[in-house]
Request: fold
Amino acid sequence: MLALSRKKNEALVINNDIEITILDIRGDQVKIGISAPKEVPVYRKEVYLQIQEANQESLNTENLEALKELF
Reply:
């Protein structure tokens, strides 16, 4: 993991087309802005993990149904 220090209104660029800007800092909370192409999905980690879990459950359900059809 790369750890960087940034101040309010400073930014960093990832892969030439994703920009992350520090918008506000209040106490222990940091507000960030992310500019990325529309084809690049951006999720909060907890939402991303829920999506991954739902996809895994879907795969397991589909496999179970396919097995039931075989027998």
